[in-house]
Amino acid sequence: MPPELRSKLRQPLSVILRDLKSRNRNVKGEALEVLALRILIDLGLQPIGFRTRARETDYAETDLTADGLHLYYARWLVQCKNSKQVSQAHLTREIGLATLIRAHVILLITTGVFVPRVTTQAALAAQQTYLQVVLLDGTALKEYERKGRSALLDAVEEQAAEVLTLKRPQERVNAD
Question: N or C: which end of the chain has fewer CB within 10 A?
Fold first, then answer.
């Protein structure tokens, strides 16, 4: 983790979210990175890669990668967008990167909204592949600011329950 970001992790979440609206591009970019780190830490994940580029991905960049060790191991790929909306093309790119770096979970964070095709594609990824997609939009971030870590955990847990439902049919396919 870059030292300049480590010191900013102690900032109140309200300051980080305020800085996302700054006119200064560097302030906004740094705030988005700090927010992503903060979310990973609050989810109990260990950041392992920052602005990761690899030959295997043709040097395409991921914002962050993280390891999760709860009842199982999972590698997370994190992409953050400080934009009004996130299109399906953004998720498509992350699905490709996740396959190349062997991630299990894609965490897509935006200060805006996801177009409807993103949620559809996230559901298809869960149904048809080993991947899981977690989507945190501006509304989820406002709840996170208001209620703290518990709101974040609730949002991710709710999506995990949906993924479980989507993945259940995979059990029958594997049992044949």
Answer: C
Q: Which is nearest to 40 in space by CA: 6, 20, 66, 18?
A: 66
Note whether 38 and 14 are within 8 A (CB). no
What DSSP string describes 88-101? Answer: HHHHHHHHHHHHHH
For the beta carbon of residue 8, count every other beta carbon within 10 angstroms: 18
For residues 32 and 23, is the Cβ–Cβ distance under 8 A?
Answer: no
Q: Which two tokens stand for residue 106?
A: 């894609």
Dihedral pair phi/psi, residue 92, rounded to 5°: -55, -45
Alpha-carbon span 103 to 132, nearest angstrom:
9
Reported pTM: 0.83
Q: How far is CA 132 from CA 16, 41, 83, in A?
A: 27, 19, 23
Contact present, 32 and 59 (Cβ < 8 Å): no
Residue 67: in which H helix or E strand, if any? strand 61-69
**Cβ contact 69:31 at 8 Å:** no
Three-state secondary-structure class, residue 70: coil
**Domains plus CATH for the chain?**
47-175 (3.40.1350)
User: 136-171: per-residue pLDDT in tens?
Assistant: 999 999 999 999 999 999 999 999 999 999 988 887
